[in-house]
Each structure stands twice: as C-alpha cells, then as structure tokens.
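Title: Request for sanity check on MtDNA inheritance, partitioning of the mitochondrial organelle prediction

Description:
We are preparing a figure and want to confirm that the structure record we downloaded matches what your pipeline produces today. Could someone re-run it with the sequence below and paste the raw structure tokens into this thread? We only need the token string, no images.
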Amino acid sequence: MHEIITLQLGQQSNYLATHFWNTQESYFTYAENEESQIDHDIHWRPGLGADGSETFMPRTVIYDLKGGFGSLKKINALYDIADEDPAASSSLWGGQTVVQKAEPITLSAYQQSLDAGLAPPPLTTESVRYWSDFNRVFYHPRSIVQLNDYELNSSLQPFERWDTGEELFANLDKEHDIMDRDLRPFVEEADQMQGIQIFATLDDAWGGFASKYLERLRDEYGKTTVWVWGAQGAAQGVNREKRLLRLVNKAKSLTEMYKQASLLIPISLPSTLSPRLRKKLSFDPASTWHTSALLSAAIESATLPSRLKDAANRDTLGHITDSLNTHGKQTVANLQMSFSDVQDVPHNENAGDEAKDGLKLDMDFRPADEMVDGSRIRNGFHSAPKIFSQVLASRGDRAKDAAAEDEGDEDDRMRRRGQGETISRKYQSTLSYPLLDSFPEIFRDEDGEALQSNIAITTSLSTDAELSSKLRGLRSTVTRFIGLEDRETLGNELAEMADEYHEGWSSGSDFGDDDD
C-alpha cells in the first residue's frame, strides 16, 4: 500500500503536522457515490476502538515536552477505558500512595463544540493556545509520547541548545529503545512502507533530538526513504545572542541530517513578499497557528503525488527524491509556492524565465539567515540561481488544463542531466486545497476578501546553486562563535555540502569564494 509513517518532533512541528492531519481527514468521503481522489491507506491505519467499531487513525508518532499537548489526552473517545489508579497498576509498593496531579488544561471552545457534535465557533489567534486547540483528528494512544524531562517554554531549563536535544535522545534511547517502543509497531503493521516523513525544527534542541533519531533510523532502516521538513523560527524580536545560538544549532542540524536524510527541506516564512502578494496574504507572523498554516499548505501540496489514486500523477517519495538528487549528494531542497482562487491558475507575477532555467514561484520558503553573509535579496534570489532539478505539483480545477508540456521521458532527463540543464518533473491534480474551519483566513483574493472553501496551489521542490553561497555564508558566521574542538569538523562539513551545489557550474552571480 506504500504507507508513509510520520514523526512529529516538538511544538512548532506539531502545529505544522496538525494542519497536515486536519487536511488529510477532510479528504474522507461518506456518500455512496462519492469517491476520494486520495488513497487513505498511505497515511491512515485501520483499527478497532474500545467498543469494537472500525477506526482510521494517523500513522504518526507525536513527541512534545511536558505541557506541550495542551488539552489532548493520550486516551480519547475511541479508546476510552475505565479510570484506574496509575500508582496501583504500575508500582510494586504495597502500601498507601499519594498521587499528585497537575491541573488539567481546559478544552478550547472549538474542541468542546467538536466533542458535542456542534458547529464550532471561529478560531482566533487568542483562542489557539496549543496545537491541540485546532486539532480535528483522533490519534491512537501509541502515537502520543510526552517527554517529561523538559517543560514547554521553561525559563529555568530551556530546551534550546542542540546538544541538549542530542543528550535527551541518547538518554531516552538507552532507557527505552525508542525504535522498538515508539516506531517499530507502526512499521511492522505497514504492508509496503514507501517512506518516513519527519517534522522537526533545525535551530533549537529539537534539531539535536531529530538528528540522533535520524541516525538511529538509518541504523534500523538503511534503505528507507526519509524526508525531513526542517522548520526554522523567525528572527524578529530575537536578541543577537539567541540568533547566533540558533545559527549554530542550524549548522549542526544541517550537517548531521545531510548525512542521513534522503531529502532535507529547510523551511521558514518568506523573508520578502511582493506588493501584490502582501495584498493576497493576511497573517500574523507572531502566531504559530497562522505561520504553520501557510507552511503546511505548501508541504501538503508538494507531497500530494505520494497519496493520489491517479496513477498518471502518483509517485513515491523515493522517486521524487531521485528526480531532485541529480548528482548523488544534492539532498537539500528548496520549497516554493504560489496560490490563487480555485478557478484560476497560480502563477508568478515575474514569470517569463526560460523553462530550462526552472520555474520561480511567488513564495520562497528557504530560510533567510539575517546574520549570515550573502543573505538573499528580492524574492529570495541573488539574480537567477542555477536550478539543477525541479519537481512541480499543481492542484485545482484548472491544473490539468493549464499544465505546461512535461519534461519528457527518462531518456530526455538523462540527456538534460548530461548537458547540465534543469531536470523537471510535473504532477497535476484537480483536487483543490481545502480551507477548513481549523485553518486561519490568511489567503485573500485580488480584492482583499478572504478566500473560502478551496484554493488552487502550485508548489516547487528544487535543488539549486544558491544553497552553495548560503552554506558558505553560514560556515563563515558560525565558525567564529564555536569552540575550537567543533570548528574544524563543522566548517569542513559545511564546505563539503556547499561544493555539491556549486561544482560543475560557474556564473557571473556574486557567490564569492570561501573566505578562510
């Protein structure tokens, strides 16, 4: 069935994944004459509830810190069991016990309405306190893994250093064998797993946790396709010391994940938006609910081919990876997106580049590291970076009507690879992106009115030469602020990564050489 198993690591990642799962849940159809375009078995696992009824729940494992799950309980309505004394059931002590419980977090009005089967009230940035406040999905109890060693948003013991996450994973894995306890049950029930997707952050302690998790994954499942969506926090309002810490964390995450991931896609909010796009987007950059919605719309659309029933436009994560990794080690990709009303075709107002140079879309989600030399300008590009390979996914009522001519057969792709031309692959689907009541009203039409119901989206995943200068700039910055012990190793690994995106191509663009 080509199942995909998801790992969600941390608060920001769980915001992203919650939007993702809400979207997947919306694809279920219940009328006899209505068939979904989505193969639900890819992301959902069948099971039986406590009352013997059939259930469908996400193939996912969700990690968060103490307090990070909000009002979400490990045992939900589908797996409700009689309350028992947790001390009596797990302790060898035969005497009296005293159990101290923290005050439970109250359900949001949105969740209360869902539980009661009523139309939920509109969500706001004030009413969304945790990712569970806008969650529409039931999870299997095995999916919920709370890490009690650290508390969410703690000022006394902040979870923000890469080494802290690395150490936490090592301790937990030594004590519990995380692969066996958390992941293996989901892997073993899959018939033919096509891959694992990981939602993580790169620039905090979760980057260290994810890097070591990925290393263990490779030990256990050496040939499995693994995609990592590496989110990065906004730099606005963050002091210099913490921004430097984040850059060091990111550098460590990139170099470690690069060794193990089949594809790593660093993502953050676009650093610049055109005037037209600023009119068509209305979101609060301080709201994780808003920012994760925008990113999740792009992620869900870019991976749509991996779960379509349409054989002509369906593909596996592994095949998409092969299309992007043209030279063997280009496993860091860039994500872009354009959107429009469902009846229109998403485009770029500056479109007009030759097809061989790749298509540039409105929003570029490549993180812009403000403190790094050579930060990008205008729409995320210095001038026109060399695009090695690009995978486009278009969705909406007119996606197939407006689809450009495809890239040709495998022989043509081999020819283009040999000549150093951009290798592209295109997928189209008439399935629009659904705007649910759990999704903020961030998309606008040309008149500034909130788009309702559905939108058309085009996404791009690409490997390009701009990454070379970004990595060299990151290297130049972070090696000045880390200890001598790590400086040489980290610096060399970043330089080697940069070479993979610069080798075999030279241009007049202002990339510059290594300044060491």
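Thanks, this matches our download. Residues 198 and 228 are 5 Å apart (CA to CA).
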